[in-house]
Amino acid sequence: MDLEREFEQTVAADHRVEPRDWMPDGYRATLVRQIAQHAHSEIIGMQPEGNWISRAPSLRRKAILLAKVQDEAGHGLYLYAAAETLGADREELTEKLIAGRQKYSSIFNYPTLTYADVGVIGWLVDGAAICNQVPLCRTSYGPYARAMIRVCKEESFHQRQGYELLMTMMSGTEQQRALVQESVDRWWWPSLMMFGPPDAESSNTEQSMLWRIKRHTNDELRQRFVDMSVPQAAKLGVTLPDPHLVWNAERGHHDFGEIDWTEFWQVVKGAGPCNAQRVEHRRKAHEDGAWVREAATAYARKKEQAA
Ligand SMILES: [Fe+2]
Ligand SMILES: [Fe+2]
């Protein structure tokens, strides 16, 4: 009873819950699920852009993209480490991902068809990730909140990187501008889907808000992202593919069209354009890397014995 009251007081006072503190089983399970899903998204998210490293248009673009994809691997590591403080083993989480028992962000189940996609992913996908993640710097679980501070700094660099690439393409040829527009047309709606189902259908939101794991609802964050993106699109000179997108002075926000929730649920349930390919690639990489893990473990054991 005392422990439970202490936990509730910690959360209510906006203090952080730390690994050794008592916490309800549901709180721990919710965090493990959310952090694992987040970690998997960082790692799977390396694939769509990694696809273009060998075909970057210049050495400069290759170095930038390589660094960006490497950052995402780092984000995955911080997050798996945060999950470990809750008793969730990284190996176990990876196995669940490969077996399809844990999810990752559905955005990464869409293919990257042109180099403009590298810019649009930086601008819109990393941009949506920032909207989702900045409030998580104040999430109630300490190790998760601290990991997010560094992740967010790097994500905002990624977004600028994408925007700069698009600005360069938009000041290029007619064909380059058309590539950017075509890419925006494909990524805009899936980016809006990154905030998850509408609040009315989001089963975990209410409890997560009470525990201060989540700080804003899906629809609030989605609105924030739309309002942020509209002036950026105008500055870039691209059209967002939504005829219903219009400023609503009364609400002080942009109204926008209905998301295709049938597509959203299809992709979430595994029937997106690249779901099978992404998981298969991850499975193969994990198996191919087994010798590295074995060698590292053997080396650590040897050092321990020597000490
Ligand atoms: Fe990331
Ligand atoms: Fe990123």
Automatic annotation (TrEMBL):
A Gene Ontology biological process noted in the UniProt record is: phenylacetate catabolic process
The record, for SUPFAM superfamilies, names:
Ferritin-like
> Recorded GO terms, molecular function?
phenylacetyl-CoA 1,2-epoxidase activity
InterPro entries from the xrefs?
A: Aromatic_CoA_ox/epox, Ferritin-like, Ferritin-like_SF, PaaA, PaaA_PaaC
Q: Which Pfam families match?
A: PaaA_PaaC (PF05138)
- Where is it found, in Gene Ontology cellular component terms? cytosol
Domain of life according to the entry: Bacteria
Question: Would you tell me the protein name for this molecule?
Answer: Phenylacetate-CoA oxygenase subunit PaaA
Q: Which organism is it from?
A: Actinokineospora globicatena
Q: What is the lineage of its organism?
A: Bacteria, Bacillati, Actinomycetota, Actinomycetes, Pseudonocardiales
Q: Give the gene name.
A: paaA
